[in-house]
Amino acid sequence: STPERKPPVPGRVPELAAAAPTREFSMPTIGEYSPPDDRTRSGWCASASSHRGCASRRWRISTAGWPTNALPNAKARRHPEQGERTIWDVFEEERASFIPYAGRFDGYHCIPASVSKTCTLRFDNNKYSVLSSAVGRPVEIHAYADRIVIRQDGAVVGEHARSFGRNEVVYDPWHYVPVLARKPNGLRNGAPFREWVLPSAMEKVRRKLGAADDGDRQMVSILTCVLTDGLSAVESACQEALEHGVCSAAVILNILARSRDPAAGTILSIPQALTLAHEPVADCARYDSLRRTNSHGTHRGTGTDGSAEALRNAQRL
């Protein structure tokens, strides 16, 4: 009977797909390594050269179960091609020629783009927001497999998770905070701020300020501080204001200003040579001696013609 033939893999020649076996192969580690025979060597080298293309062989490489005795085995076992040396000796000799690890490969597709007046740019049938300061100047889109990074003059002006839909708009509300300084009502009705979830303390302040006439403007001034002081600092200031039962932009900005002030400097010790022999005494009664009047109703001691006592008091001052 003719054996049942499996459907060919898309993109492969049917004849090769039917003739090519599927092999299970585990990557040998240093501890499990053994000199390869003709079968294993042909699996990696000879078969790849004899069969045109790698489509005729499918390998499943498994790295599970790495042994803990890899180093002792590498020092004890002989090298498969240099039998007079151990695997460890060859490894130590080749160590100096290894290329150092430079971190994760930064692979992306770079294309130029322009930013519209709505602080967005188009890429792959979708729109992504950028900082409002990037409007009117060209930018570079670095498209990764999972994210989009927008750079301008080397600085990152936007970063989003990549969207694979069509005609979608991906907003970052923080990109539009500088614009709110001119249009504070956009915080309530703007598309980028719909369903914007703020930290808990800031969200409570936002709800409390919503009842005030200038609540949007006050909240915008608080959000603007995030760009300079950071989100955690503004969140802490809002939490402190709520604990004191006060919900006002002026109070929160005051708390932030006090947190920015540097700590009081240390008091320097005064050298003995600079110590005062007669320290000044805070005696306001000395001023009264200048205000004393004579029998004619004029002040004494108001110039160089005054009494000696008034002159002495003036010199002390």
What's this model, at a glance?
The chain is α/β, with parallel strands linked by helices and 317 residues long.
Structure class: alpha/beta
Report the C-alpha radius of gyration, rounded. Answer: 40 Å
Widest beta sheet: strand line-up = 3-6-7-8
The rounded distance between the terminal residues' Cα atoms is: 125 Å
Write a structural description.
The structure is a single chain. The model is unreliable at 9-66 and 301-305 (pLDDT under 50). The protein is α/β, with parallel strands linked by helices. The termini are far apart. The longest helix has 13 residues, at 38-50. It has 13 helices and 9 strands. Helix 7 (200-209) crosses helix 10 and helix 10 (231-243) crosses helix 11.
Summary keywords:
alpha/beta, 13% strand, flat
List strands and helices in order, with pairings.
Elements: H1 14-19, E1 22-24, H2 38-50, E2 58-60, H3 70-76, H4 87-94, E3 109-114, E4 120-123, E5 126-129, E6 138-143, E7 147-152, E8 155-161, E9 169-170, H5 177-180, H6 186-189, H7 200-209, H8 215-224, H9 226-229, H10 231-243, H11 249-260, H12 285-290, H13 308-316
Parallel strand pairs: 1-2, 5-9
Antiparallel strand pairs: 3-6, 4-5, 6-7, 7-8
